[in-house]
Amino acid sequence: MNWKPLIVTVTCDPQLQDPLNPRCDELKTVEAIAKEYKDANAAGAAMDHIHGIYSRDPVVQPDGRQLQIPDLEATTEIVEQIRSEYPQVGIQQGLASMRPEQKLKLWEAIKPDMSSLNLNSHDEYFDPYPREVQPISCYSVHPINELRQYFQWAGQHGVKPELECFDTGAFDAVRIIRDGIFWNDDGQMEEERGLLADPLWATFFFGWPGQSCQPMTDLALFNQVFHLPDQMNWSMSCMSRCPKEYWAQINRGVLQNGHIRVGYEDCGRHPDGSYASCNADLVDSVVQMAKRVGRPLAGADEARETIGLRSAT
C-alpha cells in the first residue's frame, strides 16, 4: 500500500456532542482547554480544531440562523497558550457557521492557519440524551455569494479554508467557486477565479445528527471518495451513539488513506463504551491504529506541507 502520512486533527470540545461527558464542566476555562490541546499535540495531533469559548443563540434568530457566538478575548488566549509550546501545530478555527462579521473578527484576533467553512447547509440537531438534556440545534444556509465573500476574506487574511462537506453537494459548490462565475444582487455577472488555492482540504462528516446526516457506513464513505474533486485532500469527522460503530468508521478512513479528526467533540468514548480520560487518549488510539497497518504519522511540518499552509516561523 502506498500510504500517505496520516494527519491527525484533534477537537477537544464535548459540549455539543455529549453534554454528559464527565469532563464537560471542566473544559470551560482557558487554561483547561489549552492544556487539553497541548497534551493531544504531544500524543501526535498535528492540527487543532478549536471552538474556544463561546455562547450560542437560544432560539432561531430573525436572520433565520441559530449559531454560536465567540468570546474573542478568551479564544485568543487559548490559541496563544497552544502556540507558546507548539508553534508548528496548525490552528484550525471551528464553528463553521458563525456569522460572517464574527468570523472575520475572530480571524483578525487569532490569525488561524485554517478556518472551517460549510459548503452545504448546517442543519444539525444534537440530541444524544433526548429524555435528559435539551437538544442543541444549529441552523444556517450558505449561499454561493456568501461563500465567495468568505473565500475573498480568507485570501486577504492568509487563512486556508477547511471545506466542511456533509454530502457530495459540497463538491458542486467547489465546481461553482472554481469556475468563478457569479451573479451579484443587481443581476450583473461577475467573474472571479482563484478563490480556492490547490490543494484543497476537506472534512467529510458521517453520523452527525440532524437533517443533513450521512450514515456511518462504508458505502457513504466510498461515495464521497469516488466523487472526490481534483486536488482535494480529505479528512473525516464522525459522530455516533455507538462507539464500536464510530471506531469502525474511523478505521475505514485510515485504511482508505484519508486523514482523521478525533476528540471529545466527535466521540469521547472507547469501543467498549468507557469514556476516554482525555483527548490525548483518543489521538493515541488513531496513532496506534495507523501503526498496526504500517501507516506513518505526519508531524506538524509535514502536515503543513501536505495541506498547503504557510510556514509557522
Task: Report what the structure shows.
The protein has helices at residues 30-43, 72-85, 100-110, 144-157, 169-179, 218-226, 243-255, 279-292, 300-307, and strands at 8-10, 47-50, 54-56, 68-70, 90-93, 114-118, 122-126, 136-140, 160-165, 181-183, 189-191, 200-206, 232-238, 259-262. With 313 residues, the protein is α/β, with parallel strands linked by helices. The protein has a single domain (8-307), classed as Alpha-Beta Barrel (TIM Barrel), CATH 3.20.20. The strands form 4 sheets. It has an 8-stranded parallel barrel, surrounded by 7 helices. Helix 1 runs parallel beside helix 2, helix 1 packs parallel to helix 8 (279-292) and helix 2 runs parallel beside helix 3. The two termini are 34 Å apart.
Spatial strand sequence of the major β-sheet: 1-2-5-6-9-12-13-14
What's the overall geometry?
globular
Secondary structural class: alpha/beta
Largest sheet: 8 strands, parallel, barrel
Q: What is the number of domains?
A: 1
Number of DSSP strands?
A: 14
Here the CATH topology equals: TIM Barrel
Count of individual helical segments:
9
Spatial separation of the terminal alpha carbons: 34 Å
Query: Uncertain regions: pLDDT < 50 for 5+ in a row?
Result: none
Helix content: 25-40%
**CATH secondary-structure class:** Alpha Beta
Topology of helices and strands:
Elements lengths: L7 E3 L19 H14 L3 E4 L3 E3 L11 E3 L1 H14 L4 E4 L6 H11 L3 E5 L3 E5 L9 E5 L3 H14 L2 E6 L3 H11 L1 E3 L5 E3 L8 E7 L11 H9 L5 E7 L4 H13 L3 E4 L16 H14 L7 H8 L6
Parallel strand pairs: 1-2, 1-14, 2-5, 5-6, 6-9, 9-12, 12-13, 13-14
Antiparallel strand pairs: 3-4, 7-8, 10-11
Helix pairs in contact: 1-2, 1-8, 2-3, 3-4
